[in-house]
């Protein structure tokens, strides 16, 4: 039987629930059947409900990892020194379930959650549902490519771009990229061509490509297996980055930024040709990513492993699919959001490897960090160019904000590497307005 105090407490909580943003998600017995459960919102910035100790305690966080958008509802829950954390299934970033703090320096948003009379309540002004929205999914089939065919005697740039995208072996992909870069810089390749990129790059059939969140559990920090896992994950990112660079070369040979904001802004019908410097920049980006992949691949071999020893995901290609019809969106999301986020987390990653006395890996990561600053700068430079040459011209920063809100799910999350971003030319006016407003 309830005591008078307990009854008064329950009544008080009911009063709070009925008059605020507290929302009932369901019965404890129903919700405790999954350790991690995605809670869908109309806005698309979903939450994850996590229960520990068989439903005795619940936590709620944003579902998308602030690093690269990994699905935390598919992560592992661990008790680390008395703290419950969720590990992102993509890159093993850890988030304290109470505070949202990560050892990487990132912070994930958390939400108040209470259990009242056997029901779970979440405090948020978002419209919540346990039923998923209808969304298109990127295929996990590593062999999927379009029906695009290229002639073997073709020597155009887009021919070679498609050739890289259709090259399955990652080391062959990287070496072919470096060779094409040499041909372009030497003037042996000058014709742009008109070959269309595949829907999705080819992958080595020996590579175990899984859906995002289905990778094997990674080791804890401080061990060689953990370092191998992190390097392997970075190598996978670089493999996709090679493809993203060649895709932008093949796909956007002419200015295209339709579907901006609420109005269908399109360029004049002539389809103004992008200058050669655009291609110079993104071919260099592709070559940098190829160099990064080979450095990481060789480092894995030094550690008695190899790329392909662990499962990999294809989550980064979702951004390519989302922005395939809009150059402004591609530059904004891939180069000014994802690559800039890489700058944000790299100092912590470097510090971790340095603390483990892995100087060879630190040297590799320093090379990657320096190059990635130039990639963010390239994205910013050409985003500005396209805005200025749009008909009519667009205001760059508000347009960037519009593109991110439309094509990137969720908010940008601190901490930001203001020094690295600033070196790339991206001041806080570009990204601070995209963080979650304080309620």
From TrEMBL:
Gene Ontology MF, one: 2 iron, 2 sulfur cluster binding
Chain segments annotated as transmembrane = none
The cross-references to PROSITE patterns, in alphabetical order and at most eight, read:
RIESKE
Leader sequence range is none
**InterPro entries noted in UniProt:** DUF455, Ferritin-like_SF, Rieske_2Fe-2S, Rieske_2Fe-2S_sf, Sol_Rieske_ferrdox_dom
A Pfam entry, by short name: DUF455
Keywords, A to Z, come to: 2Fe-2S, Iron, Iron-sulfur, Metal-binding
Region Disordered: which residues? 191-226
Q: Which domain of life is it from?
A: Eukaryota
Q: Which SUPFAM superfamilies match?
A: Ferritin-like (SSF47240), ISP domain (SSF50022)
Q: Do the record's keywords include Cell cycle?
A: no
The chain positions of domain Rieske read: 22-122
PANTHER family under this entry? 3-OXOACYL-[ACYL-CARRIER-PROTEIN] SYNTHASE-LIKE PROTEIN, SI:CH73-314G15.3
| The protein's name | Rieske domain-containing protein
Q: Which organism is the protein's source? A: Mizuhopecten yessoensis
């Amino acid at each position: 039987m309830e005591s008078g105090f307990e009854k008064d407490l329950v009544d008080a909580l009911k009063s709070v629930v009925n008059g605020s943003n507290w929302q009932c998600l369901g019965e404890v017995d129903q919700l405790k059947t999954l350790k991690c459960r995605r809670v869908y919102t109309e806005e698309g910035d979903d939450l994850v409900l996590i229960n520990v100790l068989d439903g005795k305690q619940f936590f709620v966080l944003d579902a998308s990892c602030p690093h690269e958008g990994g699905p935390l509802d598919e992560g592992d829950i661990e008790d680390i020194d008395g703290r419950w954390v969720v590990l992102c299934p993509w890159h093993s970033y850890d988030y304290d379930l109470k505070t949202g703090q990560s050892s990487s320096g990132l912070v994930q948003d958390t939400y108040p959650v209470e259990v009242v009379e056997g029901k779970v309540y979440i405090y948020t002004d978002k419209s919540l549902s346990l039923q998923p929205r209808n969304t298109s999914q990127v295929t996990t089939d590593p062999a999927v490519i379009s029906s695009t065919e290229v002639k073997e005697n073709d020597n155009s740039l887009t021919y070679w771009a498609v050739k890289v995208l259709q090259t399955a072996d990652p080391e062959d992909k990287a070496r072919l990229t470096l060779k094409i870069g040499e041909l372009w810089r030497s003037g042996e390749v000058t014709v742009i061509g008109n070959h269309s990129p595949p829907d999705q790059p080819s992958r080595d059939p020996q590579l175990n490509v899984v859906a995002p969140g289905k990778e094997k559990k990674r080791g804890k920090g401080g061990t060689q297996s953990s370092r191998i896992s992190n390097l392997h994950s970075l190598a996978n990112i670089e493999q996709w980055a090679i493809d993203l660079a060649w895709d932008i070369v093949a796909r956007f040979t002419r200015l295209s930024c339709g579907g901006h904001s609420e109005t269908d802004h399109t360029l004049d019908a002539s389809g103004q040709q992008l200058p050669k410097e655009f291609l110079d920049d993104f071919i260099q980006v592709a070559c940098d990513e190829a160099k990064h992949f080979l450095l990481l691949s060789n480092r894995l071999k030094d550690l008695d492993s190899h790329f392909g020893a662990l499962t990999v995901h294809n989550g980064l290609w979702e951004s390519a699919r989302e922005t395939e019809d809009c150059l402004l969106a591609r530059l904004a999301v891939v180069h000014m959001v994802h690559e800039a986020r890489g700058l944000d987390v790299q100092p912590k990653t470097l510090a971790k490897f340095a603390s483990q006395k892995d100087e060879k890996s630190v040297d590799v990561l320093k090379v990657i960090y320096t190059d990635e600053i130039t990639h963010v700068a390239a994205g910013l430079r050409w985003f500005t160019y396209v805005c200025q040459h749009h008909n009519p011209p667009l205001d760059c920063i508000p347009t960037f904000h519009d593109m991110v809100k439309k094509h990137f799910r969720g908010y940008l999350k601190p901490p930001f590497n203001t020094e690295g971003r600033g070196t790339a030319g991206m001041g806080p006016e570009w990204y601070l307005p995209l963080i979650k407003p304080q309620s």
